[in-house]
Amino acid sequence: MTEQVTRATFDEVMVPNYAPSDIIPVRGEGSRVWDKNGKEYIDFAGGIAVTALGHSHPTLVKAMRDQADQLWHLSNVMTNEPALRLAKKLTEKTFAERVFFANSGGEANEAAFKLARRYAYDHVGPEKHEIISFYKSFHGRTLFTVTVGGQPKYTEGFEPAPGGIKHCDYNDIEQLKGLISDKTCAVVMEPIQGEGGVIPANLEFAKQVRELCDAHNALLVFDEVQSGVGRTGTFFAYEQLGVTPDILTSAKALGNGFPVGAMLTTEKIASSLAFGTHGSTYGGNPMACVIAEAVIDIIGTDEVLSGVKKRHELYVEGLKAINDKYNVFKDIRGMGLLIGAELVDELAGHGKDFFAESANQGLLILVAGPNVIRLAPSLIIPEEDIKAGLERFENTIKVVLETLSTK
Ligand SMILES: *Cc1c(COP(=O)(O)O)cnc(C)c1O
């Protein structure tokens, strides 16, 4: 018999590192999700920029089912056809010539940072080991990746942290000039900061970061775990920055919810992860790879990518119209379908109220920090779902403003 579980069960059996909301979704289709009570939600969150083709996409379900009948897992003692096909496709679509598979964004970044150190070690020496990243950045939750990440709250109490890591203000080239040196092995950045508040890199800044890296013989690592695989309207966001990184990491949308991550690089740099230097039990698992292959076959089309740009306009227009009525946002920004709406100063800190009320209204949204509402819906969300969801968002705003004014 299936055990009966409720939200209360969470507090009885789970480590309290999350504080999930009361709803327990049980089914999803496209950009709609239903909970145990049959209540329907429009999904503007996409599982935090993950379900880029929505829920239960028939092509992905079929790819997974077919592979499930064939082969689940071997090990990296042998290779497998889905992994090789996926790697080929990723190299065809990007600057990269070599691919390493992992199971998450954090693991892809862990591999990227280890590779950057190892490459510098091989070509210069152990003193060239410093990594520079940016405040507010997010790169994962392993000890190395939280330390590279620019949010001190995530490393507090977990020290001693790995050394040789420095942080710089994002979009501040003068500060970076003061930090970078010949001891720098890598500069790590998100082309658009996701968790940090949906903050895009300035084009001129990105270009100058590339030049500084070249001048100091440091690798440029782009963390595209959130921005990649069509999210910003190009297959990877770097294409829009006009800057090519040396190492790029991907995850989230790559598996549409099936755990998979990838680190992409050039042949020359890849050679520093020589036989035996790094690995993963599940990385390159055929189930994950067959799904990721189907994902990129669909997302990599002009139809889907141009659809992202069109939907971006619909969202921005809709949010501006709401803002004209309620004056809640001081900035509406983002790229493609990674959209941030920053609350006006009078509402600072109230992001979580909008988040909580949106669920009551039948809408799933995200926040990025205390002041920014973040939307990261499916890249193929139907226009009528955008419209209906924005109506629910407007109702959310109405209720939150009413509640706050009566307090
Ligand atoms: C989500 C995210 C990660 C971490 O990915 P996990 O799969 O949770 O390990 C890393 N970098 C960025 C930019 C992310 O948005």
From TrEMBL:
Where along this sequence does the record place binding of N(2)-acetyl-L-ornithine?
R141, S280
What class does this enzyme belong to in the EC scheme?
A: transferase
Say if the entry is tagged with keyword Amino-acid biosynthesis.
Answer: yes
The metabolic or biological pathway listed in the UniProt record of this protein is: Amino-acid biosynthesis; L-arginine biosynthesis; N(2)-acetyl-L-ornithine from L-glutamate: step 4/4
**Segment forming the signal sequence:** none
Q: Name one GO molecular function term.
A: pyridoxal phosphate binding
Cofactor comment? Binds 1 pyridoxal phosphate per subunit.
- Protein name per Swiss-Prot or TrEMBL: Acetylornithine aminotransferase
Q: Which organism is it from?
A: Marinomonas mediterranea (strain ATCC 700492 / JCM 21426 / NBRC 103028 / MMB-1)
Lineage of the organism: Bacteria, Pseudomonadati, Pseudomonadota, Gammaproteobacteria, Oceanospirillales
